[in-house]
Amino acid sequence: MGGHTFYPGGLVVDMRPHVAMELDESRDILRVQSGALWSDVIPYLDARGRSVAVMQSNNSFSVGGSLSVNCHGWQFDRGPIASTVESLRLMQADGSIVRCARTENAELFSLVLGGYGLFGIILDVELRVVENERYRLEQHVVPLAQSLATFDRRVDGEPDVRMVYARLCIVPDRLFDEVIISAFFMEAGEVPELSGRGLPDLRRAMFRGSVGSDYGKHLRWSAETEIEPLLTDKSFSRNQLLNEGVAVFENRTEGSTDVLHEYFVPRTGVVAFVKAMREIIPAHDADLLNVTVRSVNRDEDTFLRYADQRMIAFVMLFTQARTEAGEADMRTMTRGLIEAAIAAGGRHYLPYRLHATRDQFHRAYPQARRFFELKRHYDPNELFRNGFYRTYGAE
Ligand SMILES: Cc1cc2nc3c(=O)[nH]c(=O)nc-3n(C[C@H](O)[C@H](O)[C@H](O)COP(=O)(O)OP(=O)(O)OC[C@H]3O[C@@H](n4cnc5c(N)ncnc54)[C@H](O)[C@@H]3O)c2cc1C
Fold first, then answer.
1. Whose CA is nearest to atom 44 of ligand 1?
2. Is the pTM higher than 0.90?
3. Which residue minimizes the CA distance to atom 39 of ligand 1?
4. What whole-number percentage of the chain has pLDDT above 70?
5. Domain 1-133+365-395 indexed as CATH 3.30.1440.10
6. Which CATH superfamily is domain 134-358 in?
């Protein structure tokens, strides 16, 4: 979304053919090449009774891309993916290959994870994996004002809770009034076979039907709060929950595009940030399709870290016109939301549009100046470049 993989006049190294993987069952370590997608990894692990410990909410992404943004998901009581990396092998700008881990080339390890490809090419990685488990879903539909208390009472600290997300109501005249909290608890019993989450066409029609339509948004919220719980299977496998592609909500029109945003704020900043979202988004008349909320534990591993403490993450999906005016409106609104996140003690996530000003970027990530100095130390000829580096890092 922000030119992180491309550079004008540059070459793109396509790692997709490199998909080999091997599980060390005695150590629960998966060694996997960086071009593998989660949709390759999950069936492989499923056949061996294992699952991915931390990944995004969809399976369409590559291992290398996931490490390079230091992704996170809705796995509960977990930090970002870096926390699950045992070691990786990196091809540097001079062609040398080095192993990086917490005790070997440790600085490079912390820079490459969440390093947006600027330090070299990740060849393969040793990832800690977890058991595939059977889960039951518990959902709570509550007014916004009760959502944190419900989360504290029913989810946080519960020993068997494994995956959690919340969704805010996006119906314009009831914006954020209600919240659905979905929590998956481990339960005993046979683990269901790997399959999709069910009804992909219906869920897609419902989702896309809410674009540009208040009626569609009403209908979708009613379905999600009232009908969907009845249709959903009662037991899930962990892998089944992770194994969904982005096609369920993909925008296939020519005139518009969907844009993701994500903001991390500490618990103390949540109320102020939601208040700001409620003012900023309608003021820009933005077409908001989705808000999911997740909890991310503190990141102990990466240099350019977004979770410098436990964070609440707000992921928002908007549709905008594919025009200069559409882009300009989105840029202005994004800058407003970034300012609100910084004021709430947090920051924006970096894989998306490069709408933050340089000043905002450096206030949100004060360690970034050093990060870019180290980039030039490890890659003095600036072989590895992208739009992100050009916008925020180049001198
Ligand atoms: C619909 C959608 C949903 C998303 N949901 C989530 C989510 O739930 N959680 C979350 O954290 N993020 C989420 N994201 C963001 C996503 O995690 C990142 O965009 C991620 O980088 C995508 O992986 P990719 O394989 O497409 O990477 P690419 O876009 O190909 O690459 C991303 C970055 O990684 C670098 N890179 C890729 N491979 C390598 C390699 N082998 N060595 C070195 N550098 C490399 C690229 O140069 C680039 O800078 C979402 C994005 C979309 C579009």
1. 117
2. yes
3. 64
4. 98
5. no
6. FAD-linked oxidases, C-terminal domain (3.40.462.10)
